[in-house]
Amino acid sequence: MRHFDEVFEIAADRHGGTAALEQKLSKPKSLDELAAISDDRWLSIITKTIFQAGFNWKVIENKWDGFEVAFDGFDVGRCAFMDDEKFDALLQDTRIVRNGTKIAAVRDNAAFLLELREEGGAGRVLGGWPSTDYVGLLAMLGKRGSRLGGTSAQYAMRFAGRDSFILSQDVTARLIAEGVVDKAPTSKKAMAAVQDAFNTWMDQSARSLTEISRVLAMSV
Description:
Layout: H1 4-14, H2 18-23, H3 31-35, H4 39-52, H5 57-62, H6 64-70, H7 76-80, H8 84-91, H9 100-118, H10 122-128, H11 134-144, H12 152-160, H13 169-177, H14 188-205, H15 209-218
């Protein structure tokens, strides 16, 4: 596995030099900033990610104002206690993408966020999870959340501004090239290897998961 500086140089060569690459990198939000995100915004972010999965992102983006109205501004209490009448109405609501399984996930994830409220709040639980155990956070989201397996949780955390990596096709290609994994990581062992690699690169560079993930993506 190359030193992070070498991977950074590869990415810089592909994107117009060091200064140009640095301008394309963004830093994650602080714990205080994440803690300030209201529960309805967490639910909105998570829901958008779930509806975008396997669908045209632009379509979801264009309809998002309708989603916000249809789901009562993603009020966590209302969504968590959605009754059958509301659910059936949403199945007929043309303002949203009418996918019953994903609509049910909104209700389930609202209930999950209510649980996190009792544990200190979504921002502090999700934002305060150590970046050195990011795969542990993803595993927790996959277990306790709804439809937050695969890359859905990764994108939700990135969109919220939490320090994160996304195992996109390009990031995975770089991890394979560096001998970290031999295919797209899905097993616990492979994900642990990915975390170890990111931890090493964090130590070498003093950069966040977010920055390292972007550099890896742009090195391919």
